[in-house]
Amino acid sequence: MDKRKKRLLFVCYGNICRSPMAEGLARKRLGPAAEVASAGIAAAGGPASEEAVLVMKVVYKIDISAHVARPVGAFDLGRFDHIIAMDASIYHHLRTVWEVPEAVLYGWDIEDPIGTDYQTYKETALKIERRLGQLLTAAGLET
Predict the structure, then answer these.
(1) Cα 93 from chain centroid?
(2) Taking a C-beta distance cutoff of 8 angstroms, is the pair 46, 75 a contact?
(3) Mean pLDDT lowest for which of 32-36, 59-63, 126-130, 138-142?
(4) CA atoms within 13 Å, Cβ hemisphere of 89
(5) Is 112 a catalytic residue?
(6) What does the alpha-carbon distance between residue 117 and residue 114 come to, in Å, rounded to a whole number?
């Protein structure tokens, strides 16, 4: 039995909306049983978007206000058991540019909510929560 903590990395474009929300949800759900991080293929630092912080706080009681966007290159991608691309273009980028093996790469269909309203962010978070549940069940990560 593998007792090592499973490592998950959520990747979106700027690491300020989708992947920080996914990271927060996964941390809450998995607790100390896993190491969870997020990154962006074009992250340039800076905090999570105000809407993402607000939705996570109001709907899920999760504080992501201290989040700072990180580029995917800041991580050793080979250390992760599961790398989740938030949409098809991110998936393609991770496969071709970063050569992430398909065995650890998952492609989701979460649209980028940047520039939209609170309700759209809330719907995005709900979609992330559903996909996270599916992933954790399929990967045998639920406790």
Answers:
(1) 15
(2) no
(3) 138-142
(4) 9
(5) yes
(6) 9
Structure tokens at 99: 């050569």
The model carries a pTM of: 0.96
29, 76, 112, 117: which one is catalytic?
112
Report the amino acid identity of residue 114.
Answer: I
**Residue 141 confidence class, pLDDT cut points 50, 70, 90:** confident
What structural domains and CATH numbers belong to the chain?
Answer: 6-138 (3.40.50.2300)
Catalytic residue among 18, 27, 70, 131: 18
For tokens 């978007």, what's the residue? 49
From the number of C-beta atoms within 10 Å of its C-beta (0-12, 13-18, 19+), residue 51 rates as buried
Report, as an integer, the average pLDDT of 115-140: 96
